[in-house]
Design a protein that fits this description.
This protein has 14 helices and 22 strands. By secondary structure, the chain is an alpha+beta fold. An 8-stranded antiparallel beta sheet has the order 13-12-9-10-11-14-21-19. Bound molecules: adenosine-5'-diphosphate.
């Protein structure tokens, strides 16, 4: 097993990884930017090194500075968390050639599955159900129109290198398609330095249901149930739960085995998520694989009683997974809400600033994954998520009641947050019935 791990990330996920390492007797090294000097997670890390100024490109994305720190601190492995360098094949390669384990997939698996267009290709070969769409990248708007006429409107233009809901445009007709095609390419070029886009059929009112998988280098592949992430704003997740309110054991098995088939075809070893869209008739369609640990992983940890970060570290160290498929039974119900430093009354504008008061909920079945504390100033430079509040209970109604109770206790003063929106969701009749889709927040809840 590793004796020291460098964490190439910040905030709550850095803290989550430190927690797993501590329990495993592994020392941690954090790297941080000048904007994160006061980062509370640094206080619990064994070592911490400032590697550059606030802009990510000069700190959290600067491979040479991170590798230099890894050499000086003499670590065995690097955990990239999510975002930043977590899905960067080149970074995984640099780690490999430096003799430092990358806690994530191989560079080849990242290249194959991390790009949405090549993942689609592999899915076709692996007989994974897909929405109708293009096999290759779409070269110009003329080709886009031909494809859309072929598969029928509405369609969605997607950046092959995309993520975080960016580089996507929905089109219901030709004019919107021509505009959307150009916009998606421009946005993708700026955000991902890769303007390749493809087109697929746009499904109206689907649910977003994803399968958590984890595997080791001994050929063991396990799926840890699904997460329902249908509650989104601008294609970004706000609330996640497990199990999905419309899941059946048969469908779970079918989706789980499909996810594993795809990951096996890519020789994928570590934690990963296969994302699907699910329609009302129980048909599911593959969207993409996230080749990293995801923000919402604790939802699956709660219903399957696993520790996915620990399992990820074990797999990277060449050990066997600590559980088999037979051990992983989905029990109870978990819900996660993402608390962002944003103002829901003001177009969700980022609301960084100093936390002047904080009351953290607790009691039975409550999990708080966050790095914030009183006096801490949230820097404006990074993602606006400041906390994940999770609850776990025997069934969905009890979990909703528990989340309402926990949100009632929670107090974060000094900044605006998404707490009021989550309170609304937990009291919403359709959410309580489990009757929502990926457009629900924007088309119904916020339109009220
Ligand atoms: P990203 O990698 O940017 O998160 P995804 O491919 O995972 O992008 O898609 C994010 C969200 O966009 C989905 O959860 C869903 O709400 C919506 N979406 C993507 N593709 C489609 C589609 N073909 N039809 C309907 N909605 C889609």
């Amino acid at each position: 097993m590793f004796s020291k791990i460098l964490i190439a990330n910040r905030g709550e996920i850095a803290l989550r990884i430190i927690r797993a390492c501590r329990e495993m007797g592994i020392k941690t090294v954090c790297v941080y930017s000048e904007a994160d000097r006061q980062g509370p997670w640094l206080e619990v890390s064994d070592e911490a090194y400032c590697i550059g100024p606030a802009p990510s490109a000069k700190s959290y994305l600067d491979i040479s500075r991170i590798m230099a720190t890894a050499e000086i601190a003499d670590v065995d492995a690097i955990h990239p968390g999510y975002g930043f360098l977590s899905e960067n094949a080149h970074f995984a390669e640099v780690c490999q050639s430096s003799g430092i384990a990358f806690i994530g997939p191989s560079p080849e698996a990242i290249r194959l599955l991390g790009n949405k267009a090549s993942a689609r290709d592999l899915a076709i070969k692996s007989k994974v159900p897909l929405l109708p769409g293009t096999k290759d990248l779409v070269e110009d708007d003329k080709e886009a129109i031909e494809i859309a006429n072929d598969i029928g409107y509405p369609v969605i233009v997607k950046a092959a290198a995309g993520g975080g809901g960016r580089g996507m445009r929905v089109a219901h007709n030709e004019i919107a398609l021509v505009n959307g095609y150009m916009q998606a390419r421009t946005e993708a070029a700026t955000a991902f330095k890769d303007d390749g886009v493809y087109i697929e059929k746009y499904l109206e009112r689907p649910r977003h249901v994803e399968i958590q998988i984890i595997s080791d280098s001994h050929g063991n592949y396990v799926y840890c149930g699904e997460r329902d992430c249908s509650l989104q704003r601008r294609h970004q997740k706000l609330v996640e739960e497990a199990p999905s309110p419309i899941m059946t054991p048969e469908l779970r098995e079918k989706m789980g085995e499909t996810a594993i088939r795809l990951c096996k075809a890519a020789n994928y070893v570590t934690a990963g998520t296969a994302e699907f869209l699910l329609d009302k008739n129980g048909n599911f369609y593959f969207m993409e694989v996230n080749t990293r640990i995801q923000v919402e992983h604790p939802v699956s940890e709660l219903v399957t009683r696993t520790d996915l970060i620990r399992a990820q570290i074990m797999a990277a160290a060449g050990e066997k997974l600590p559980f088999t498929q037979d051990d992983v039974e989905v029990r109870g119900h978990a819900i996660e809400v993402r608390i962002n430093a944003e103002d829901p009354d003001n177009g969700f504008r980022p609301s960084p600033g100093k936390i002047t008061d904080l009351m953290i909920p607790g009691g039975p079945g409550v999990r708080w994954d966050s790095h914030i504390k009183v006096g801490y100033s949230i820097p404006p430079n990074y993602d606006s998520m400041v906390a994940k509040l999770l609850v776990f209970a025997d069934d969905r109604p009890k979990a909703i009641a528990r989340m309402r109770r926990a949100l009632g206790e929670l107090k974060i003063e000094g900044i605006k947050t998404t707490i009021p929106l989550h309170q609304r969701i937990m009291n919403d009749a359709n959410f309580i019935k489990g009757d929502v889709d990926t457009g629900y927040i924007e088309n119904v809840l916020l339109a009220k």
